[in-house]
């Protein structure tokens, strides 16, 4: 077909699932940490995701939550993705109604799966002082739950949903008591 351009290949990075927590199918953590070189020598710089996140919001689209980067196996939804001083923070829900979601939840709870990975296209990069790439602008496509995170410190922790529910109930009770008192 004349004039047809093939899309550039999707790049993936297994990255920062550090602090990821399971709460009644809810997970959160860092999909990327700024200034920390991954095992491939790439370092994401602050602001690298900003343009992509703005474009997604403007177009009403979402970053996909996939199982092991497989586009045929979405396992949930990311409800919040934002850059902060530390990196790319993500919060979402794994859907237990989906077979791959149930598998992911079981493996996370068992400690067999412990990372996040980003799927993206590099828009702008430069060589850094260590000889790797400094990723300056990234088009973020997906964040996957994965077996092997690129950063060695990427880990998943689980939280008991009933403890969290109890904490929410206590907080609500205290808020109601404060409202009644004054």
TrEMBL record:
A matching Pfam family: Peptidase_S78
Could you give a single Gene Ontology term from the biological process aspect? proteolysis
Coiled-coil boundaries: none
Query: Which residue intervals define the domain Prohead serine protease in the entry?
Result: 26-162
Which InterPro entries does this chain map to?
A: Peptidase_S78_dom, Prohead_protease
Q: Specify the signal sequence span.
A: none
Provide any one GO MF term from the record: peptidase activity
**Keyword terms of this UniProt record:** Hydrolase, Protease, Viral release from host cell
Put simply, this protein is called: HK97 family phage prohead protease
Q: Which organism is it from?
A: Halovulum dunhuangense
């Amino acid at each position: 077909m004349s004039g047809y351009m093939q899309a550039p290949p999707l790049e993936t990075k297994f990255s920062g699932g550090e602090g990821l927590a399971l709460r009644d199918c809810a997970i959160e953590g860092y999909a990327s940490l700024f200034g920390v070189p991954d095992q491939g020598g790439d370092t994401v710089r602050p602001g690298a995701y900003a343009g992509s996140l703005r474009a997604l919001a403007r177009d009403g689209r979402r970053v996909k939550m996939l199982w092991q980067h497989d586009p045929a196996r979405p396992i949930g939804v990311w409800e919040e993705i934002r850059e902060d001083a530390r990196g790319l923070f993500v919060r979402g829900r794994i859907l237990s109604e989906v077979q791959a979601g149930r598998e992911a939840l079981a493996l996370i709870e068992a400690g067999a799966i412990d990372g996040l990975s980003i799927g993206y296209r590099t828009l702008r990069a430069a060589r850094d002082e260590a000889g790797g790439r400094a990723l300056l602008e990234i088009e973020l496509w997906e964040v996957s739950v994965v077996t092997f995170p690129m950063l060695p410190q990427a880990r998943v922790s689980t939280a008991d949903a009933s403890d969290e529910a109890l904490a929410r109930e206590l907080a609500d009770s205290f808020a109601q008591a404060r409202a009644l008192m004054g």
